[in-house]
């Protein structure tokens, strides 16, 4: 839950429109109401307020109007661009709309979701640049304090640029020194992001008293992630080794996996002294006079549909897990995943079965993470009772029979950790980076370098936590809710191809529905193969996917046409170019 917000300074970073019948010329020369000048902010308090404004983008609702419009693509849960586009999830809800075009890989440059994402990224970058431009002019900062401020702003800037780059690829580099925005400087910004994250790693302290701030280790993990995306395996290994050995959370606790998998997604655990797995969260809070805009706006559509007080959120049936993802959680008799044929058999669903009709859930062996990731008929849905199936689904024919679960709050939290004006907005943080991902990046790095047994050791850490019976979903009588069978990899890994396959599959199981899958498939170079195979399978369940095809150019999304038009030079020539294929 949000701690850093109590230090917030309300900043309006845009012009306020004034309408008046006044006709005197001097009226037009008045400073705009509600806007701080840089001169007024050139103090310690002013710079700290600007820095907090840069952090506010992490909650996906930082536009000056306070509007939640566009929050679904301005959230670091990445469910629209990173999940609906993958084999993890359906768009859900009902037929049509801008998200359907994204899901079907038929997105055009005028899709409003593209412009929302672009503006979100550059709004965050602009706020970081404000800090980086003004902070060095404040004489009251000590050298250490200034490095601290600059380190946070540059690390945040790297994070914003990264979440633009994985969607659009080439982007214009705009920093605190940029004065001409019409120069053609678009490119893939790996070098610039690396330099920002490296500055943070070299200059930030290991801990902060406030939750939510980026520290040395957050910057280091971000830098390691940049290395992994570029396949700089030696650089990634040297950094990840240090982070895993020495990294500390904001509270000074050494990073470690939480004993129970689901505690990552439970509000009561987040931000406590026991929360050792959070590397960087989007810190959410509710009922704090923020009109709901400090809460989880970006995922407020992703609850079971129906509007009943006996179900969480009550709207709107988006981001529904695919049958393909559900099948991936099957295990064999040895408790290992079905790496090559997870769709050969299916996990039983209640599709077409009314909620008042009898249904017996799947009886085969399953990875226990399934029922903390996905809501399915007959299995306890947190403390809301058994998932009733069709009664909580907007349209099974279109969206399938399953519900998302990681973003959902407990019934016991309603009204306290949900916003009073809308129970779809909760204080359930988005885990932008958690330590499990750090371990999986280390496993992938070791395998790519040929250190297969070290890679197996890392993967087994993840599976060992998942196998903790104290962390299984339980029935009211205390018995496991399903036939959970999961084991570590006991046989030595001697084949690199097999090892990488196991690691990639483990990422899917561990990070399911967390908005990372599409970007993983793209960076591995297997998106076209995997996603067309997925479409061929899933279309037998979801007729709305008929005719959808993933093509080579779909590894990137189009540059928003609105941005191309808005950044033309005075002579009409564009400064932005469209991605190939669009």
UniProtKB/TrEMBL annotation:
It is found in: Cell outer membrane. Keywords: Cell outer membrane, Membrane, Signal. Coiled coil: none annotated. Transmembrane segments: none annotated. Residues 104-227 form the SusD-like N-terminal domain. Its main location: membrane. Residues 351-370, 563-582 are annotated as: Disordered. Residues 277-582 form the RagB/SusD domain. The keyword Signal applies. Signal peptide: none annotated. Belongs to the SusD family. This is RagB/SusD family nutrient uptake outer membrane protein. It comes from Nibrella saemangeumensis.
